[in-house]
Amino acid sequence: MTIQTTRPATHPDSPEGLEVRPQTSVLAELADRIAGDVLGPGDHGYDEARTGFNLLADHRPAVIAVPANRHDVIEVVRFAADEGLRVAIQATGHGPGSAADGALLINTSKMTDVSVDPAARTATVAAGAKWAPVLAQAQEHGLAPLLGSTTDVGVVGYTLGGGFGWLGRKYGLSSDAVRSFDIVTPDGNPLRVSATSHPDIFWALRGGGSGSLGVITDVVIDLFPVSTVYAGNLFYSAEDAPEVLRRFAEWAPQQSEDLTSAVTVMNFPPLDIVPEPFRGKTFTLVRGCWSGDVADGARVIDEWRQWKTPEVDLWAEMPFAAADAISMDPTDPLPAMVTTEWLDELPDAAIDIVVDRVRPKPGTLPLVLFAEIRHAGGAVARGAATSPNDRGREGTFLLELASMVPDPHVGLAVESALRLTRKALEPYVTGAAYLNFVEFDEKTARSATSFSEDNHRRLVAIKAALDPENRFCHGVALH
Ligand SMILES: Cc1cc2nc3c(=O)[nH]c(=O)nc-3n(C[C@H](O)[C@H](O)[C@H](O)COP(=O)(O)OP(=O)(O)OC[C@H]3O[C@@H](n4cnc5c(N)ncnc54)[C@H](O)[C@@H]3O)c2cc1C
């Protein structure tokens, strides 16, 4: 345990009445109360603890607590309440909210317990655990969790924002599969919430309250009987993009819920980690996962092969344990920007905008790394009726735009490329945000669009009862 705070941590952004009192003695008191670490600016380990997967998040908390267990979380949250500190939460840093400057950052990355109960078909997952161990343990019993495109993301953060993965159309979002949350409320009260215990808080957390209603210490989730799938990517050329997207817009809605699929225009970076023949080239990908009978899945993808032979064909039977191979997401930290829109339909005009903005013009470097359009509907849309983020899951197609910012000097150019693409798409989108695909201040600014008016009102009331001072203000905005 380290305490070496030597300079004031008061931050200009601290709301009135919530100034940070950084005296060494105050932090030492917290350090004495917990088994984990307490780190102030300048402490060894402070930079590592504030840095997450997305390197664009360069926040400077007044203090970072790295709890070792649930008891620590309770103590830290009570400390924050006594001191009037704003609280931010970080597990992996894949989905940063507004900068935690001057706040108390709870870094849950040391709380990684995972246990699978094959008889009950559930997994109990602690705050800092990623999907990788959950998937591995579940697959030993022929079971699968509703993870997303990568096993590197945190289970809790992903689930609080909804959680749309390759089994989504069949089984719904990850938030639908939650049996209970253990939460420490902003006043430091530990509660287990479920459909029968504190049902209002339970409802709010299943897609609506990421980072704003308290700290989740554990979640119990359902597992599903999925072991072998037919999954992968067809690689068509960059030139084929308009045709492939048009075909996907008609084809995907006709498919059964055994298939969750997407079409992606991808500018593979010219980096050594990208294998030839993809390095530095643009492709149009038809990707997804079929979780029904494998032979049926192969027949469905054959329709594409017969339409046009892809340049590379990686669709194959595979264990769901290998699900990372579908999206091939990066696993090393990087500076990235992400944004999103929902569309009910994919008209030609919208397709042309996406292709035009993502495919680099000859002689130019791409500002948007990829545009992925996931086909939703099915259980994703059906679950809207019982979820807080009803508007943020009802559309037919979910567009994700992502960029890398390898040099801070191009940050503004990338940001405006993403903003202008969204602006051009305005006539075709529903206006709702998918909360897992918005980050930084955009998460706060667009939170409300994810909820219907009634649900928003209900969420705001729940938030006001739990956190009247809005000290948990770095995640989804609920006011
Ligand atoms: C490479 C990549 C692939 C992705 N693929 C998908 C995908 O397929 N589908 C999808 O839906 N999303 C996907 N996402 C988005 C991802 O689900 C979100 O970014 C999610 O918020 C990440 O959660 P985390 O805990 O890993 O990240 P963090 O940045 O650590 O946390 C994200 C937010 O969650 C909240 N939070 C985290 N832990 C707690 C806690 N214990 N209590 C309360 N609040 C907490 C906080 O507000 C925090 O700001 C992807 C992101 C990346 C970078």
From TrEMBL:
InterPro entries in alphabetical order: BBE, FAD-bd_PCMH, FAD-bd_PCMH-like_sf, FAD-bd_PCMH_sub1, FAD-bd_PCMH_sub2, FAD-linked_Oxidoreductase, Oxid_FAD_bind_N, Oxy_OxRdtase_FAD_BS
Domain FAD-binding PCMH-type: 57-226
Keywords, alphabetical: FAD, Flavoprotein, Oxidoreductase
One Pfam family here: BBE
Residue stretches in coiled coil: none
Span list, region Disordered: 1-20
Top-rank lineage group of the source organism: Bacteria
Cofactor(s) required for function per UniProt: FAD
Sequence similarity: Belongs to the oxygen-dependent FAD-linked oxidoreductase family.
Record protein name field: FAD-binding protein
Annotated organism of origin: Gordonia sesuvii
